C-alpha cells in the first residue's frame, strides 16, 4: 500500500500514519530523514545532495525525488510506504509519478486531512496553555502567529498538489475534524474503496 498524506501542520497526519504503519507493516518515509541517510550512505544521489547542501543551497526536486525513489526500493518498503509532507509541489508530484511508473509501481491513495484552520490555531493555543500550566516549555512554533503563517504557507504550496491529484481522481478527502477513531475509520474506508 503506497500512500501520500496531505494536510496542514497539526491535522493529525502523524497520529494516523503511525496507526497505518502498525496495521499494514509499512514505513513512514520522511524526506528529511531520507536525505540525511542518503548523504551518510554516500549513494550517488546522496553525494549530489551533499555537495549542494554544503554550499548552502536547496536540494532540487529531481534529487529529492531520486532519494525518495531509492528509499522505496528498500526491503522494508516492499509492501508499501507512507509519504507525509511530500510531495510539496506539483513538480515533485509529477516526478514522483514518473519514478514510481519507471519501477512499475503506483500510488494506492492520496489522503488529504481537511481541517478548519481556526480550530487548528485554537488547538495549538490550548496545547501551549496546557504545557505552560504543567510547567513545561512551550515550543517556539506553538504561537498563533507562527501557526497561522505555517498554515498559510501550507495552503499556498499544497493547494496545487491537491488539485493535481484530484485531477486524476486519486485524491480522497478525509474530515480531519472528526474524533481520532472516526478519522481512522474514514481512512480505512477510503483505502478499501476501489480506485476510479
Can you walk me through this structure?
The chain contains eight helices and five strands. It is α/β, with parallel strands linked by helices and 196 residues long. It has one domain (2-192): 3-Layer(aba) Sandwich (Rossmann fold), CATH 3.40.50. Helix 2 (31-41) crosses helix 4, helix 4 (61-71) runs parallel beside helix 5 (90-102) and helix 6 (117-133) runs antiparallel to helix 7. The longest helix is centred in the last third of the chain and has 24 residues, at 144-167. The two termini are 16 Å apart. The model has no long low-confidence stretch (mean pLDDT 86).
Topology of helices and strands:
Blueprint: E1 2-6, H1 13-24, E2 28-29, H2 31-41, H3 44-54, H4 61-71, E3 81-84, H5 90-102, E4 109-114, H6 117-133, H7 144-167, E5 171-175, H8 180-192
Parallel strand pairs: 1-3, 1-4, 2-3, 4-5
Helix pairs in contact: 2-3, 2-4, 3-4, 4-5, 6-7
Amino acid at each position: 500500500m503506497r500512500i501520500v498524506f496531505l494536510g496542514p501542520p497539526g491535522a493529525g497526519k502523524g497520529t494516523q500514519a503511525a496507526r497505518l504503519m502498525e496495521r499494514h507493516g509499512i514505513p513512514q518515509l520522511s524526506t528529511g530523514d531520507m536525505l540525511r541517510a542518503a548523504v551518510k550512505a554516500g549513494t550517488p544521489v546522496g553525494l549530489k545532495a551533499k555537495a549542494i547542501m554544503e554550499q548552502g543551497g536547496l536540494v532540487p526536486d529531481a534529487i529529492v525525488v531520486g532519494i525518495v525513489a531509492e528509499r522505496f526500493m528498500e526491503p522494508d518498503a516492499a509492501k508499501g510506504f507512507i509519504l507525509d509532507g511530500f510531495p510539496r509541489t506539483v513538480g515533485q508530484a509529477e516526478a514522483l509519478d514518473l519514478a514510481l511508473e519507471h519501477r512499475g509501481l503506483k500510488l494506492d491513495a492520496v489522503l488529504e486531512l481537511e481541517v478548519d484552520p481556526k480550530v487548528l490555531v485554537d488547538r495549538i493555543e490550548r496545547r501551549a496553555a496546557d504545557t505552560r500550566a504543567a510547567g513545561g516549555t512551550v515550543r517556539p512554533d506553538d504561537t498563533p502567529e507562527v501557526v497561522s503563517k505555517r498554515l498559510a504557507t501550507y495552503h499556498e504550496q499544497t493547494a496545487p498538489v491537491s488539485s493535481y491529484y484530484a485531477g486524476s481522481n486519486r485524491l480522497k478527502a478525509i474530515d480531519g475534524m472528526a474524533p481520532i477513531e472516526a478519522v481512522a475509520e474514514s481512512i480505512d474506508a477510503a483505502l478499501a474503496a476501489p480506485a476510479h
